[in-house]
Amino acid sequence: MVLADLGRKITSALRSLSNATIINEEVLNAMLKEVCAALLEADVNIKLVKQLRENVKSAIDLEEMASGLNKRRMIQHAVFKELVKLVDPGVKAWTPTKGKNNVIMFVGLQGIGKTTTCSKLKQNATKARIPFYGSYTEMDPVVIASEGVEKFKGENFEIIIVDTSGRHKQEDSLFEEMLQVSNAVQPDNIVYVMDASIGQACESQAKAFKDKVDVASVIVTKLDGHAKGGGALSAVAATRSPIIFIGTGEHIDDFEPFKTQPFISKLLGMGDIEGLIDRVNELKLDDNEELIDKLKHGQFTLRDMYEQFQNIMKMGPFGQIM
């Protein structure tokens, strides 16, 4: 069951409240049973699911609720609030400081999409003509990382991304190399990249990396086709590590900022209005003074219409926006 299936099952459970003629304990318990079953199927930790159920039950007292209140709306709001808490670590994510060098170091196991994520983050460096540093002769990754960071600091780059090597498992050599690179480049932010397909096992993995290096942010990859995505997100949140991005595919554009409330809204089919506004703002439509002037004079050609359609296409599929 991928995340879309999880959203449909939870939405179906919440919709059952609208079909009920009377909202009582029996209806509430039946709805919660469906929601909890969907979360467990998505590999969310049973303790977290149990806590969600208890929190909703304690927040909704049907006997004490005033007759004028919309019970259905109150229950739906309580479930939404608990789902947000499920993926919210309660810790503010690191943000780069404008006007200074920001060194970001990526760590993680091999094959989880670390280097692909770096490419997505820098939005295809070759096409954007953003320089990168590597060496065909130097074998020591610590030296390569240190030299590269110093080079780009000297050229006053504000964002410097350091991609470290991965391993097939949590080896001591991996952690030792990470520590050496970290000590050499002194990163402002260490990002741990993890694979959503391992589900709630993400928690122990994230904790292992946090114990060795100062992981400040997490990126979860491969959320597009795995049944355990919900378990992965909730497990990471349990480690109090803020998720900053999620990868939803292999393409450069299959990468989006992670915000808890918009994510749950989108999951439940309520749409991500905040994300839509961000996408529209990225197009910078207000900067097209020539088009604005033409519209003021009642002029709008087929070429203008074509260009606006192209702008809409740049926003990506509506399934990713809403």
Tell me what the structure shows.
The chain is of the alpha/beta class and 322 residues long. The chain folds into 3 domains: 3-87, Four Helix Bundle (Hemerythrin (Met), subunit A), CATH 1.20.120.140; 102-269, 3-Layer(aba) Sandwich (Rossmann fold); 277-321, no CATH class. Helix content is 53%, strand content 10%. A 6-stranded mixed sheet has the order 2-1-3-4-5-6, sandwiched between helices. The longest helix has 17 residues, at 3-19. The radius of gyration is 23 Å and the shape is flat. The mean pLDDT is 79.
Question: In brief, what are we looking at here?
Answer:
Keywords: GTP-binding, Nucleotide-binding. The protein is an alpha/beta fold.
Fill in the keyword field for this structure.
alpha/beta; Four Helix Bundle (Hemerythrin (Met), subunit A); Rossmann fold; six-stranded mixed sheet; 7S RNA binding
Shape: flat
Strand order of the largest sheet: 2-1-3-4-5-6
What is the domain total for the residues? 3
Order of helices and strands: HHHHEHHHEHEHEHEEHHHHH
Detail the poorly predicted runs.
Answer: none
Remind me, CATH topology of the largest domain?
A: Rossmann fold
Residue share in helix = 40-55%
How many DSSP H or I helices? 15
Radius of gyration: 23 Å
Structural class label = alpha/beta
Strand content: 5-15%
CATH class of the largest domain: Alpha Beta
Q: Any idea what the CATH superfamily of the largest domain is called? A: P-loop containing nucleotide triphosphate hydrolases
